[in-house]
């Protein structure tokens, strides 16, 4: 059976919630789709999150890795297209680490493209009424770092696809949010289902000026 690993994060930056972790917990409780699902909630720690993700990949050998995190200013669900080999933290992580201009993986390539079908994912989310767009920057904090590690660990490994999805604040926490945490959980199920049935991403319009 196909195996999928989906992760979210604990709260950070003084917040008391992180909708990515909450949505992944909801997904774990409701998933009945065509893959064995392993979920985990990662620490917002450059070292801790990368180590946890790599040991989950080593242990479970997933065919699909979908890491998720909060990008509070986004207007919808945003699959990330690219991870850069750069840790440049504006604030300390939950362990107090604040790398500046450091590589995520010394000696590794400058960047990796997501191996998830990001265009198909956006198309399917929009068809389901979920606001979504392709993002071309996962930032330079722990989320980008985890995405880079996921792709460094899996790129070129036959049959394994990986990537990252940023989610916005939800109506459970912000009055002006456009989705609920339950909506995000359903969206993550769609992301996984689309990935499982889309081996090659179709060339759909989805570029951006920034
Ligand atoms: N968002 C942060 C790290 C953890 C999270 O949920 C980020 O975008 O880097």
Describe what you observe in this structure:
Its EC number is 3.4.19.3. Keywords: Cytoplasm, Hydrolase, Protease, Thiol protease. This protein is α/β, with parallel strands linked by helices. It has one domain: Aminopeptidase, CATH 3.40.630. The chain contains five helices and seven strands. It has a five-stranded mixed beta sheet, with helices on both faces. α1 links the parallel β1 and β2. α1 packs across α5, α2 packs parallel to α4 and α3 packs across α5. The radius of gyration is 16 Å and the shape is globular. Pyroglutamic acid (PCA) binds next to β3 and α4. The site of pyroglutamic acid (PCA) has 12 residues, from β3 and α4.
Give descriptors for this structure.
Aminopeptidase, alpha/beta, about 210 residues, binds pyroglutamic acid, two-stranded antiparallel sheet, globular, 5-stranded mixed β-sheet, 7 strands
């Amino acid at each position: 059976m196909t195996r999928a690993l989906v992760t979210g994060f604990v709260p950070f930056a003084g917040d008391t919630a992180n909708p990515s972790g909450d949505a992944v917990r909801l997904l774990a409780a409701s998933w009945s789709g065509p893959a064995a699902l392993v979920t985990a909630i990662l620490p917002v720690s450059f070292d801790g999150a990368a180590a946890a993700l790599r040991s989950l990949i080593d242990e479970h050998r997933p065919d699909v890795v979908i890491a998720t995190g909060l990008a509070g200013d986004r207007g919808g669900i945003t699959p990330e297209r690219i991870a850069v080999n750069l840790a440049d933290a504006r604030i300390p992580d939950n362990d107090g680490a604040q790398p500046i201009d450091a590589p995520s993986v010394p000696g590794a390539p400058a960047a990796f493209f997501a191996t998830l079908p990001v265009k198909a994912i956006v198309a399917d989310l929009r068809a389901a009424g979920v606001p979504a767009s392709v993002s071309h920057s996962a930032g330079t904090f722990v989320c980008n770092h985890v995405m880079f590690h996921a792709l460094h660990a899996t790129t070129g490994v036959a049959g394994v696809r990986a990537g990252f999805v940023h989610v916005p604040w939800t109506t459970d926490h912000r009055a002006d949010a456009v989705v609920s945490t339950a909506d995000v959980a359903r969206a993550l199920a769609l992301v996984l289902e689309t990935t499982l049935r889309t081996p090659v991403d179709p060339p759909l319009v989805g570029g951006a000026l920034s």
